[in-house]
Amino acid sequence: MNNNKLTELNEQAIKYIAVGAAVLGTGGGGDPHIGKLMAMEAIRKYGPVRVVRPEDLGDDDLVVPLSMIGAPTVMNEKIPSTEQMTKPLDLIEKELGRKVNAIMPIEVGGGNSLVPVLAAAERGIPILDADAMGRAFPESQMVTFHLDGIDCSPITMADERGNGVLMHAIDGIWEERMARAITIQMGGSASICDYPVSGAQVKQSAIPHTLSLAYEIGKTLFESKELRQNPIEALLMQLHGYALFHGKAVDIRRRTEGGFTRGEAVFEGTDAQKGRTMRLFFQNEFLLATEDGRSLAVTPDLIALLDQDTGMPITTENLKYGARVTAVGFPCDPKWRTPKGLETVGPQYFGYDTPYVPIEELAAGKGGDL
Amino acid sequence: MNNNKLTELNEQAIKYIAVGAAVLGTGGGGDPHIGKLMAMEAIRKYGPVRVVRPEDLGDDDLVVPLSMIGAPTVMNEKIPSTEQMTKPLDLIEKELGRKVNAIMPIEVGGGNSLVPVLAAAERGIPILDADAMGRAFPESQMVTFHLDGIDCSPITMADERGNGVLMHAIDGIWEERMARAITIQMGGSASICDYPVSGAQVKQSAIPHTLSLAYEIGKTLFESKELRQNPIEALLMQLHGYALFHGKAVDIRRRTEGGFTRGEAVFEGTDAQKGRTMRLFFQNEFLLATEDGRSLAVTPDLIALLDQDTGMPITTENLKYGARVTAVGFPCDPKWRTPKGLETVGPQYFGYDTPYVPIEELAAGKGGDL
């Protein structure tokens, strides 16, 4: 699935990654269209960005994740400037007294997969082909670095007005509290660098080659059209995934609260699935899909909504009444299935009263009763 | 009133200042008892702290205000450690790349008058005999530095757990928003350095000799007891103040919201004032006193509640049902009576639908209808 051949981010790569990242984004991770627009503009102005693989890093290299934090509903309205994206980098370089060797996406899912491109292009810094989620999650501490006890500090943030913040948080939970409070004050979205890591820490804790994975997913969806293949079938093959439900959206409740987009959506089955009903729960990302009191897929496994005709992913923000979708699920990175992983991003953390059952077992008819 | 003779903060000086600062604190500024306890402990451990006057500063000296931010209700429960008080200083020295020459209280009113003593004693840094309010106010931008357009950044904050924050805010209003949000996350109170200033800026914008003033007020109240003088009369003479009302508290509504202690209290007249009713409105500080729809005293002029017997000041927090008090008022520093001053701390800012009328005019029977 990963051929690790992604060596630079050019227009073609950005087009593919934007779509692949929207699949991996499970509805969230920031609007992929905004990430794509920012990245395209950046490489048109500054040229393509070089991609480095984790295995090419020196152990002492400084790698800094750069992303947007906040509610996707707000990010759609406020496209960040170059200054807003480079300011957290400047603040962290000043604090650490050294230059950044590579910028990485904190999450490969959604727009945050491409958010680093603007700063990387302007500064001539390469982007790492890895992330710390292998998908998207809504809170700051929901990263593989947290599972391995890596310090999240220093953390730097900026808004579009010129406000900048540097924090030393005692752990990822405190980062989340303080950074979220600042984000709300900054108008609901902000740029942020957190978990600055060494090359050695990347090799130990990051999820490798996820930009390549997003690229390959996007390539599959675009090429299946040309090859007249069924894009959803091609995708499920590629990701070892499962079709969960075919239907149309009949009820969507979405609210922006506490710096998140939260809510649920209801789908009625169509065609062969007429009479069935699926409920989908989200906090920025799709986190739980159920049918008649049984789980179909549970966080941290991935849930995506795909357009029935094109196979193109649909975000939490852009889901509309009447949309005809296929819900698909696929297994998360094994790091999330550990006790600490499930404590951090399992269904109980998000307040869902249901146990985690791996999607392979749910698909095989084992477990899943709420 | 100011003899500028305060050269060091020893136990006697701290005892006087704590009481004088509670008068100038108009009910807020942090609990003076907590400030006193912290300061006493510090000088017992490290020895007295030297006091410098504004006129003794070099124009290029670095002067850093250090205070507690938050709701007094919370501060009563969480006495800060030495580490919590020195951490914002360390962060600001690191950011500015130089040592602090003097620490100053941001507000002379309440416990914040003495909060700098702990860090000053531990670090051997003198304290400045000046502040940026001449009283206490609830929000960060309510300082004379703000009136003169002085940059509030860098701002540094710390909590008791080890979390630290450095902010570059574009102005004092943005500082207030972000610092207040962080304070709430930090559990409702935090230590903070803001408006780092030069000696020249102190001379231009600070209110001089206010620690000396607090000392003199405390001295008056303590000595009047020994001299069998009426302490309240002595105080009104000293501060060119006015007795507003004699009565007892019959209703107190106090809530902690948005990082503040807000509410109002109602007093019924006693003795010669039987039949009269005074209402007192507060947001950390007493901001407006009214009787029968007429203002008795209006922010930014100072309002204090004094115990009828001892003349000792009573804070917003410690006001109890049935307390017999004399409400007094006295004029604020002229800087607050300018258009920019009134825009920043006048009654409209706090949401009171009443014009500002100087207390001298209200006492002379001019204006004051709500």
From TrEMBL, chains A, B:
S-Me-THD N-terminal domain segment(s): 13-168
Domain of life: Bacteria
All copies of domain S-Me-THD-like C-terminal, residue ranges: 173-359
InterPro entries xref list: S-Me-THD-like_C (IPR048350), S-Me-THD_C_sf (IPR024071), S-Me-THD_N (IPR010318), S-Me-THD_N_sf (IPR027479)
Protein name: DUF917 family protein
Organism, as annotated: Paenibacillus dendrobii
